[in-house]
Amino acid sequence: MDIFLFDEVPDAQPTFIEPSLSYRFATVTSRLSSYIQEWTPFVLVVCYFAFSISIYMVCNEHILAIFWFIYLALNFYIAASTVLEAFLSLPPIREARRAVDKAQAKNWTFPTPDNDLPILDLVIVAYLPNEADIIKNRIHYLCNEIVYPKHLIRINCVYNTPRPIEPLETELRDMMRKYEELRIIEVPNSHSKAENLNFFFSIKTGADIIAIYDCDHYPHPYSPRWAIECRAAMTGFGLFAGSNGYWRANLLREHKMDGTMLTEDIDSTLRAFSKGWNVVHDLNVVSYELAPTSIKAFWKQRMRWAQGWTQASIRHLVPAWNKSPAERAKRRFGQRFGIFSLLFVRETSYYLVTQYTCLIFVFLITSFPHSGKELVKLIYFQYAISQWCFFTSVMCLLATLYITNIVRNEFTKRRTMILFAVLYPFYLVVIATMGIYAHARQIVAYSNWNPTARA
């Protein structure tokens, strides 16, 4: 790096200062350390697959049969759990649809009079370089489409940017003259969504409820009203996944977000649940999200989520399972089952899927099929017990698709469901590999926050 020093005399010539040897060494060391940290997870994942395949290559047939049975049995457990969750979702979904029909019949008139509604801070969080192309559109949408008394709602755009972006920032501030309920807040020296939110929580706005949305979300126009009315079905516990979450303002200002977590949203919910706070999931509080615009953006987004879930699982599995000091009764079975599946089974399922894939790969190497019949027998019917596990898993899949078809919305097409079911085994392997990769990143303490590209 070249360093130039200018004296105070006009038109003075710059004096070049040679970087010291220690500075050069520190720069090279820092770059080398970052490079190693970036690529070590990849090497670990490659070694994981190579070692797994090598182990299966030297195992005898009886040991392979044991592994095969274990993997199929665990796969059946996951499939059965999915069907159970889908089945349990039917009553609250039916109740939510009845509530919508009732509201439509009354011309969207809700029980609570407008003047009795609480003051709502609706916050959209943005990283400006990434979302510069969409942020104005989101503000216009929220200010024009959200159905809530204007004197009781504030639309807060809380953003950070590493450099000035003009004329956009000036245009954002000019929008405050058009919309009285709009506030544009730039967070100085912020490097994350958590820092943006914590800065906003330090501002005394007088709001009773704080709603948090990512900049890439389109809340349904009536979502705030549904949330405030709290016509919700209790499902044991719910999750705030970074957007479309409504919090009591006094609790959230005390709770804050943990900027050390890659998925501070999941962490915030699990911390609240561990404290014994009441968490509600309302199916009518709907928000639509933009998808990543490229494979690279998809990879960065899912890797950040996967590692963030790993961090949250490590931190919260035991505290969320145990009874909080504020609770008198023990956690219900449904709550414990949900926590166990969400935090433990999900993380370990990555190894189940990848190990099963490695085992099939070994079978392909050692007993390469020469026909479709041999291929089907190789993958699914190696052993007698596998027939029972296979057919029960297929029945679970069909049952899940049937229930999904019952509750699907207007954006979900049947052909899309069928296509997803066909491609799901391959998608599952990709997601499981990303989960293993996230574990490797966690081992080497990889902590870069990579925002998802938007357009």
Automatic annotation (TrEMBL):
Transmembrane segments: 39-58, 64-88, 350-368, 380-404, 416-440
Subcellular localization(s) per the UniProt record: Membrane
Major localization listed first in the record, in broad terms: membrane
GO cellular component entries: membrane
Coiled-coil ranges per UniProt: none
Highest taxon of the lineage: Eukaryota
A single MF term (Gene Ontology): glycosyltransferase activity
InterPro entries per the UniProt record, alphabetical: Glyco_trans_2-like (IPR001173), Glycosyltr_2/OpgH_subfam (IPR050321), Nucleotide-diphossugar_trans (IPR029044)
Ranges for domain Glycosyltransferase 2-like: 232-401
Keywords: Glycosyltransferase, Membrane, Transferase, Transmembrane, Transmembrane helix
SUPFAM superfamilies linked to this entry: Nucleotide-diphospho-sugar transferases
Topological category with respect to the lipid bilayer: Multi-pass membrane protein
UniProt xrefs under PANTHER family: CELLULOSE SYNTHASE CATALYTIC SUBUNIT A [UDP-FORMING]
Protein name from the UniProt record: Glycosyltransferase 2-like domain-containing protein
Lineage: Eukaryota, Fungi, Dikarya, Ascomycota, Pezizomycotina
